[in-house]
Design brief:
By secondary structure, the chain is mainly alpha-helical. Helices cover 82% and strands 0% of the residues. The protein has one domain: Monooxygenase, CATH 1.20.1280.
């Protein structure tokens, strides 16, 4: 049975997680890195890595880990779009 703490953690991650593909698409369409904060992306990346690490350190490896990994993947897509857009900015 799913514990309430796991469920709530997953809900939080899903809420955050929906923003990453939407943001990546909007930034991809914008074709500029202006207005995108690499510091923000770095801080969020660190937060997800810390959340994943907490699963291993605390011995609570469960299905929620997959939600972290999906979010981290889409955050990686945002990083890719950011660096792509920086190249466009440099060429302009």
């Amino acid at each position: 049975m799913i514990g309430i703490a796991e469920f709530l953690e997953a809900v939080m991650l899903v809420c955050f997680g929906f923003s990453w593909p939407i943001n990546a698409y909007k930034e991809f369409q914008a074709r500029t890195a202006k207005g995108t904060s690499w510091q923000f992306l770095a801080l969020i990346t660190f937060g997800y890595v810390a959340g994943i690490a907490s699963k291993f350190v605390g011995g609570t490896i469960n299905w929620v880990l997959y939600v972290y990994l999906i979010n981290l993947f889409f955050l990686g897509v945002n990083w890719w779009v950011y660096f792509r857009n920086r190249r466009f900015d440099a060429d302009a």
